[in-house]
Known about the structure:
The chain is α+β, with helices and mostly antiparallel strands. It has helices at residues 65-76, 106-125, 129-134, and strands at residues 4-16, 22-33, 38-44, 54-64, 88-93, 98-102, 136-140. Mean pLDDT is 74; it is low at 129-141.
Amino acid sequence: xxxxxxxxxxxxxxxxxxxxxxxxxxxxxxxxxxxxxxxxxxxxxxxxxxxxxxxxxxxxxxxxxxxxxxxxxxxxxxxxxxxxxxxxxxxxxxxxxxxxxxxxxxxxxxxxxxxxxxxxxxxxxxxxxxxxxxxxxxxxx
Length: 141
């Protein structure tokens, strides 16, 4: 792996919005910068149009599948299978914000979650000094 490379990219659904929360389709890319020990997740409308808001993730908060569905039901008071296919994962930023993400298929969900776990393993094997103490990683949305 080079010092900076894109690990995964494609379209995902993201749950959010204010005041009404809905699922919106976004282009996402995950890259890992080994020098800085940062995972960047960029959200944008298209690959050419990147938004830049940065959060630091706590990878220990990563949930997926049925566990994530239960969490959404508890947090929002409902889980609607008509608007959500169940191919979910969620992760929290250090500021406490929870990010819910949905893939189109279970195979795609597995690929995104495996990519995050693969990068997390690389961080554990080759920790950056600041990352070794906190186990947190950064990303941009």
